[in-house]
Design goal:
The protein has 5 helices and 2 strands. With 149 residues, the protein is mainly α. It has a two-stranded antiparallel sheet with strand order 1-2.
Amino acid sequence: MGKPNENIKTSAKERLGLHEWKQHKPWFDKECVDLLDQRKQAKIQWVQDPSRNTVHNLNNVRRNASRHFWNKKKAYLKAKIEELETNSKVNNVRDLYRGINDFKDGYQPRTIIVKDEKRELVADPHSIMARWRNYFSQLLNLHEDNDFR
């Protein structure tokens, strides 16, 4: 039999299915991911060998990635504005206001905070995972100790 954590994950996946997170940057495509990988590799090279050439390479890769991201986002926003103008002209009010609200609200970051055993707030992702792991292990161990006959 597998580990308890794996059994829980497998059972949850079968019952609930996988949840796809909503992508907040629809303009972020495969090319952007490749540029991020290039930037990461350049930074790793710089950390391993902090010479003038690697610093120069890192700065160039960062600059190119930033320009590319900025241009992609600008083109996406321009297309969205044109779409809103079209909705306004054809009296498609529902889509017009939905698009306006998306612009007004913008990206709303989630703040995930939990209380640890000492009732102190924890915001670090690793500490939060450790807290949930401890909580569920205590919860599951509690049921193993009881005899339900």
